[in-house]
Queue: 3 jobs
Job 1
Amino acid sequence: MNVLIVFAHPEPRSFNGALKDTAVETLARAGHEVVVSDLYRLGWKAALDAADVPGERLDAGFLDVSKEQERVSGQDLTPADIRAEQEKVAWCDLLIFQFPMWWFGMPAVLKGWVDRTMARGFAYQAGRKYDTGMLKGRRAMVCTTTGTAGSLYEPDGIDGELRHILWPVHNGIFRYLGFDVLPPFAAWMPGRLSDAERQTCLDDYAKRLLNLDDTPPLYFHPAADYGPDQRLKPGVVARTGFQWNPSDGHRHAHRSLSDD
């Protein structure tokens, strides 16, 4: 298996760094090929801008990013830094995002990696998303750390259920592009753990990685569950954390996380 880890933390000796190193060592020992994109070490430019769409623009007076990305991809004009990351994505069977939970989401540099690397024409295009996504057949997962206890990320916790918080990544990036999405791995408040507890967390992550083939992906409704308006059909019971079915009189209060 070919594994790409996109690592987004400014301190290599952080617990995120330890989780990344554990993944590299565990997967390599198991016979897999592993490549790491260390975004801070790469000096990754986070902002998508006009420099990412070289050549003669379709409209010199207005930057339409999606159209220009598709043009650049079709004309083989992709800038070298973006092309290098796209080649890694095309190569991998498993994509892992390794990042600290900052402001209930990814660090800006990782969002910028998505904005620039998962460009229209390379990672998606009209009619090629979700079930027909251009990266279908691959798997993806999040490994993250938090600054607060895991109890705060339970359904009744003040921070909200973790898979709800990760919906923009799980559904809006991974699933949108066609990936099968594996359950996330979270290291809860590692800064407050003892050395022994931190090692137990690393060992748990290694075990998870060695058992990926036995780990069912998260559930997402297939295209057949949606009508022409791309809303759940009447009679379809919503089974993902950010969806419910108003056509059947359901409300968010009826939602359950049991099937997520």
Job 2
Amino acid sequence: MRYFDHAATTPPYDEVTRTIAEVMALHYGNPSSLHRLGEESGKLLRRAREVCAGALGVLPGEIVFTSGATESNNMAIKGAALQYVKRGKHLITTATEHPSVYECCRQLEQWGWEVTFLPVNKEGRVSVEQVDEAIRKDTVLVSVMHVNNETGSVQPVAEIGSLLKEKYPRVLFHVDGVQGFGKIELPIKESGIDLYSLSAHKLRGPKGIGLLYVRDGVTLQPLLAGGGQEEGRRPGTENIPYAVGMSKAIRLAKEGGPERAVHLRSLKDKLIRGIATLPELELNSALEETHGAPHIVHFSYPGMKSEAFLHMLEEEGFLVSTRSACSSKRAEPSRILLAMGKSPEAAAAGIRISLGEEHTGKDIADLLEALNKCVRRVRNLKGER
């Protein structure tokens, strides 16, 4: 089986799994303990924080380790909403955010906050002008993801950050960077970002660990009560093996970013050209390079159940997905595709192919051959030529 579902999760680097196993076996002390084992774990945690901060171009004290991007997104949005409630109770996001942002904002609506969900164009993008027009005197935070996890649409986050810092410096800016880091360059400090979420397992690191960058000077209301870990921002005994594993994965993702992006882009272009030869398939990913991530290709087969087509490809030896892994078991049409103006028929028939650095041109050629075979099979079942 060949794995084409990197947007859902990635196969961890061998050196990451070896490092985690070693740290788990040898450095099991609680970093809050005063004895030697505790001190050793504390040193590893500090070093992991420094490595992650260096890869992001921020300060070590601005890194908060979490259990993953879902927690990071909730910490950023709810933490800011609760901390700065005296400034106002209005938030801005987009209609195509990951569920961990979208549902978080929906929950805040139930608690009395107002949320503006910005509509997107047919490429799944919002404009800086839309953000500008939506801001009010009581706006506390704007949350816009870097790369859409379903279609690969790239949002103009640097431009939005510049707008906020120039015209609305009291409005915080949060970015879900999960699908962009290591593939599309985004300087955090220069882009006016106050809060930035990452998850290790999207970077060939372990599941169950992530981080939130919190700009120095920004205070978040803690979502958990407990000990004083992470400077009181996220209590709970720190996951030392996974923090070290994440630091290694994030360093490797940063170092190989430019070459990886070029490689993935060439594979994506070849895949898109092949899909374009099949009239039954409707491409949903942006064609313009700056508007689409290099590793995600999304298309629909209107009239065909996405799950059925997914399993046909699986029978041919290829593992893909229908949408975000967090939403893949839902039967209704994709919220993301509907927001992009797709028909309900197309929105219920989406397939996401997400690429990894281990893929080759031959993998893409074989995948296209499998796609052609599956389309021909559907034609025969429908009695078409």
Job 3
Amino acid sequence: MAVQQPKTADVVIIGGGIVGVSTALQLAKRGIRDVVVVEREQLGAGATGKSGALIRCHYANVPEARLAYESLRVFRSWDDEVGAGSPDFDPVGFLRLVAPRDEPQLRANVAAQQAIGIETSIVTADNLRAIEPLIRTADLTVAAFEPGSGVADPNGALYGFAEAARELGVTILTETPATEIVTRGDRVTGVVTSAGPISTGTAVLAAGAWSDQLLRPLGLDFGLVPVRTQVVIFRWPAAVDHERKHRVIVDSARGSWFRPEPGAATLVGVGSAARPTNPDEVDETIDAPAIARARAAMAHRFPGFAAATMRGGWAGTYMRSPDGHPIIDQVPTVPGLWVMTGDSGTSFKTAPAIGICLAEWITDGAPKLVDLAPFRSTRFADGQLWIDDNPYTDPVDLTVLH
């Protein structure tokens, strides 16, 4: 039976990805159950369903590392925290590789992460070979190792959040695109969808690559750019032990990332220049040049995979802010409007904590779990773009759906 769109709601959440649905669940757990989630297609049709779903805490800044750390706790304690579905979290371990010139930055970032409780350490190239025998280490000096991090099923996590939210009374509408955020005197008064208007005083915009289509009519320009990205799947060669799993790897030295996939396969993401795209017209198939870049990156880091068979892949879109970091804020000029956008495709792993913070902000007047001040939307207008404390000199843009 089709779910009817209500005429009113306490909160309307625009976007049926993992951030939007996580926020809906957390609001319901805090007693606000008159919540409507509107999704333009199906749950996970945007960046969530195409995410590499790497679960790791390593960032070159503490605020995002905190969000990832608090989210890791949710993934590890899913039955208690969510109570429905399963993210199939697999703690295979995570390695962050950097070029030798970035060793000081890596050491500083690991120390900062250890200070907030993250289980991480510096390992030498010799120790790295013991941790992950399949990888080439000749061009490395040290790496960061998180033994308790790993991978998840993005749709499994999303559907679990959705099921738990529905059980608490949240209404989730699919194939219901939002077409307008309505304001009166600058304050949010409603959301218009393809099924008609919903009267509300609180809207949460978590629409990924479509966010700017709803922000621009409000006079809000955060410099957001929708970007196309690609992921390639390779089947392991016969010579590789198909019973084992390699670690999750983000390789800043080569601008790539790798995660093991069931069926003796590996997902490979390779950064490329961020070019604007129209999310309504994006080609979801992969390009031959992307396949070649992914194969070269994998063969370099996993020499034993040089003969791996390409077996598929996909393309999707993410939204990038001017500094590549998320915007998570109650927009000061539009009371009642919260936004989470511009995350450059890395918010799957932080979505549980973002949902908690947004729910705290809406119900209690401020986020408590993590200080979201660094994610404020006004930083661009104030000329204070986010610069990481200890950034790596990535050869290409690596912030792509992982």
